[in-house]
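Narrative summary of target 7.
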Amino acid sequence: MPLVMVIASGCGRLVSPMTPGTPPCYRLSSTLPDAAFALPGRALTADIGPELSGPESRVAVVGIFVAPPGSGADFIDSGLGEGVAFAYRAKNGGDPDGDMYLEWGLERSSHEEAVSGVPAEYWRATGGMRWSFAWGTMSEFFFSLGGGYHEIAVSGGHELSGPGAYGGAGIELLLGRALSALVNVRFNYFWSDDPGFAVILAAGIGLRL
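Modeled conformation, tokenized:
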């Protein structure tokens, strides 16, 4: 029997007498990867979106713009700074209304006293909850709510510190299985002898673990 016929019979319903049992091509196919999974992007598209199962952690380094603070914090001008943001989700519950994350972060920005121009610093440590909703296949829209601690100090001068609360919203772009970029805006209100507030815009890049 020609070799071609032996192979054909081995891969069809009839089994060649020379190869009893499971046809060799069947056994071989079980050890080879599905060609579809070798296509560029296939390994990514299965896990790239907001539907990652199991626990997930996110960490991002952000650049920050702080609009001129108001009320009791109006003694400093607008400022620029940096920070680090973390988020953690225990598991994906498959809830079509969105996933819930714990979030916390630390930020610092440089300012000047509004009257004298003397350098000042504004530190914030925050923690709260994030509700994330799929927006297309490669991005998420989220709301956040929480509290924290704020401290503003003018070099050798006015100081303000106290606890506060915040609320905000943002967009996170999923750049791959492990990378993301985000932009968010947050309103902070904090209590002291003279309460103050600040609006903060942050943008950065992070890792999804």
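Strands lie at 56-66, 70-71, 79-89, 99-112, 119-134, 139-154, 159-174, 179-190, 196-208.
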